[in-house]
Design a protein that fits this description.
Length: 169
């Protein structure tokens, strides 16, 4: 008995891939922003878990509200990063300077991720939590970088990308 399987080509347009990457990066940043705000209800524990407890204690000695204000500022930055990802993915209205901001966000994340890994390796202090944070930063940076490259540098290739090549072709 002969059994044959008919393979279908699975295509995804570069535009959809770009949208998916930037949407995912945008939503992740908005979740990170919300996590910062919610974490303020348990600020001391959040600062300890993220490895900045000592620094925030020192900052609080200058003024007790500074750790909270800094966390709110950081949450706003993450929220803006998220909005730009969603804007380029056409989920929300177009924001100004999209190209510059998307690649800047990618650079910030990649610098943070690789910089922390390199610095920890040079100091010999490879904490698991810092390694995980760095890997997440690199992954988010790549979402923004590749999403931006697909949108602005690969316009001539935007037709269709073969994701899965059927066997026998």
């Amino acid at each position: 008995m002969d059994v044959t399987f008919e393979h279908k080509r699975t295509y995804i347009s570069r535009n959809k891939l770009k949208d998916y990457m930037l949407k995912l990066g945008g939503y992740i940043n908005i979740l990170i922003a919300m996590g910062h705000i919610v974490g303020l209800f348990w600020a001391d524990e959040m600062f300890e878990v993220t490895g900045i407890g000592k620094e925030m204690t020192e900052l609080a000695q200058t003024h007790t509200s500074l750790p909270f204000l800094l966390t709110i500022f950081v949450a706003i930055v993450f929220f803006i990063f998220g909005l730009y990802g969603l804007s380029v993915a056409k989920i929300i209205r177009k924001l100004p300077f999209q190209k510059t901001v998307i690649f800047s966000i990618a650079g910030i994340y990649l610098l943070r991720g690789f910089g922390e890994l390199i610095a920890d390796n040079m100091r010999g202090t490879n904490a698991l939590s810092e390694t995980i944070y760095s890997i997440f930063a690199i992954a988010i940076g790549l979402l923004f970088l590749l999403g931006g490259l697909i949108k602005w540098n690969f316009k001539h290739l935007r037709e269709k990308t073969l994701v899965e090549k059927p066997s026998g072709y």
